[in-house]
Amino acid sequence: MTDTDNSRLAASLKEAGNRLFTQKDYKAAHEQYTKAIALDPQNAILWANRSACHLWLKQYLDACGDAIQATRIDPTYYKACARLATAQDALQEYLPSTLSWQSALDAMPSENLTPVQQRQREEYTERLAEAELRLKIKSSNIGGPDIHIYGDNEGGQPWDIAAEMVEGLRSSRTARSSAWVVNGASKLFDEGVRRMKTADIRRNENGEPGCARIGCSCMQGEEGALSLICNAILRESRIVHLDDMDNWIMHYNRCGTFERQRHNTWVGLGPDSVKRDAPTRLAEKGWVEVRPDIDLTIRFWILRAFLERFLDDNTRSELEYCRQALNVIEWGRKEFKDVPLDDKGEVFSDIFLRSLRNYYLKALLMAYGTSAKTAGDHREYLEPALEYANLILEDLQHDEGPTEPLWIEGEEDPGYFLSFYDYCKGHAYSIKAYYHSDLAVRAGSDREEMNRQNKEAAELYLLAAECYPPDDEDHAKYLRCALQHFRIADALTLRKALDLMGRARQSHDVACKIWNVHPSRCGTKEEQYHQDLVDCENGLRARLEKLPPGSVDLDAPVVNIG
């Protein structure tokens, strides 16, 4: 076909896409624009139109990628700038969105505007003001609920206690301890941060620093920092600790620039860009050069997801970045299924995928917890959470891990298998339990259905608790959840109540050694929950001791155990 033929067919596909877009069939419209782009890739309107489809489909990173491509082709195309800004607003990334809204205004004609353009200018001006206001609020409130800045001499944290415990655990061949998990993840994190802080700007012979821009090669440092930090977070996110937030972020950004100067990542774009470009890049350059490009892109997205929530309580961006990392990994595992893992890289391994799915479950639950918990929120957050929990459990049926860990420090020590096998299984069970608990709430006046769902939740919480060592705070938490749901479901006996309360109390006591001063406990209701449980157990046992032996049926159902 000639260029003229391609342009004519692309125009026809564009019109078909426009009709479908008007009919709100955004997926079908996206397909038509994609076909048109293949025929006419230098048409900025096609890229901007597909960006609009991504916006309606809530695929905000892909919306950014297509809008950026449109502005590269035609920097004066103000609609593309506005779509980029809209996607950035949806991700609550207000600094870049203010720049994009300003770019949209700057690209518009300065005079002789049509009535439509005048309305667009007014809208862009209003959206710019909104983004500036949100940026100001965001800057003044930085720091999510999990953030805690650690002083240089602040000790007694889980990683300090765990480091003291592991040698004794190794000597006694005790594998079931959260100390293994904490120690392994913390060492990865600390080594990653050490390497991260080596990234710096080279100076020339006159002592002048380089430009520190992407595309230059003026940065120096040790590579691998972001991989280590990412692996640590996926292994156990509770170990993240910052000594100085502003300083840490500065080093992180500098390290990111250092890595991007050496590798051609898709950071700032979306999965569609990776899927489109990676096969071509591989054919030209091979896995040795392209593997780190893909690897770093995925890790940048995961780290961005974590930091958006950790530093700014931005669960929307966390979900989007995490979702898109999963998108590329799941695509790549199919696209490159015949490529050896050593060639395509760790991010396509079973364990990496499982750990990222596990992290995604946490993000979904966090997002649902901050929502209005409507039926729509249930579909948006809990339905996919249930799907991914089942995928993890199905995966673990085929990969149960070795029965005996290696006792030397490293990837196959007990902490490795606890993190990527038992903890993933326990978390998946807890997500399923929460799902059924939510269904119980939605059962309304249907007491039979509510009891059925609460009992299912209780059984799943018990399964979740058993996956964690008794000295992990989640072991006690899920035992308490099981107790609560058995009680609500009218399925609690005295024997079961005493058993669960006793086990939860014992778990809390041993977990205190590791977790007592962690922010997950400090400043929360954790200790009050525990004290209420202890008071309840003590009161129940005291009343039972006053009764004649054999006068109480311990297997009879009870409702009020307070």
Overview of the structural elements:
It is a single chain. This protein has 562 residues and is mostly helical. Helix content is 70%, strand content 1%. The chain has 22 helices and 4 strands. The protein has helices spanning 3-22, 26-39, 44-56, 60-73, 78-90, 94-107, 115-140, 158-171, 178-196, 225-235, 245-262, 271-285, 287-312, 315-335, 341-344, 350-369, 375-398, 414-442, 447-467, 473-488, 494-515, 526-545; strands at 200-201, 219-220, 492-493, 557-558. A two-stranded antiparallel sheet has the order 1-2. Strands 3-4 form a two-stranded antiparallel ribbon.
Globular, elongated, flat, extended or rod-shaped: what is the shape? globular
- Give the class from helix and strand content and strand pairing: mainly alpha
Helicity range? over 70%
- What count of helical segments does DSSP give? 22
Along the chain, the helix and strand elements come as HHHHHHHHHEEHHHHHHHHHHHEHHE
Q: Which sequence of strands runs across the widest sheet?
A: 1-2
**Head-to-tail CA distance between termini:** 80 Å
* Percentage beta strand: under 5%
| Overall number of strands | 4
Low-confidence stretches: 147-153
Biggest sheet details:
2 strands, antiparallel
